[in-house]
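FAQ
Q: What does a multi-component entry look like?
A: The components come first, one per line:
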Amino acid sequence: MNPLPREYYLQDTELVAKSLLGKKLFFRERGKTLSGIIVETEAYLGFKDPACHSYHGKKTDRVKTMYLPGGHSYIYFIYGMYFCFNIVTGSEEQPEAVLIRAVQPDDSSLESFRKNRGEKIKDIELTNGPGKLCSAYGINKSHNGIDLTTPPPSKSKAFIWIEDGIEVQPQQILSSSRIGIETKEEAAKWPLRFYIDKNPYVSKEK
DNA sequence: AGTGAGATGGCCT
DNA sequence: GGCCATCTCACTA
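Then the predicted structure of the entire assembly, as tokens:
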């Protein structure tokens, strides 16, 4: 286990969103470790971003974990059925985050992912969307606010962390507007979604 | 392959 | 009461 350090997450949010492509997302609970390569992310830029939950300094119960230092998980419940997994970036005064939208499953995790998602789901459909990947990993609200840089003292507690994975060249990184925020005025156009070119595990082309 | 509706409940005004 | 950083299924073609 070799989690990326705190300093990594304190960098510029957009930079982190791009840099996370190719990294490995690990999740360990009840002695079982699942993993996949991050292939799609979105940046959410805090105070100045109308699409961000912390826009204009909003700090309701749900958004509180975004005010933790970079390198914590921010997980919220959406559409009555799904969870979205984000990684907090920046300092405590800077409630920004990166949404993980899709991963490419590691072979060692395929069996568990399918068990969590349903036996008839194709490999390609297991983790190609923010709600799908949470369901595949088994990530839910109980994992909100976890420190991704330091394993918990007790092994029985869940841990989520990121490690270096595959190398991604700058020219392999494409960007687009973010998914699902058409109603957020001009921010709907901001090119803050990043994904690996031609990777089949990306949620959708655009 | 692409479209459209329904599921389902926390969150916020 | 309406919105929502989503997904699935049934239906066209």
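Q: Is there any commentary attached?
A: Sometimes. For this entry: The helical segments of chain A are 6-9, 13-19, 110-117, 130-137.
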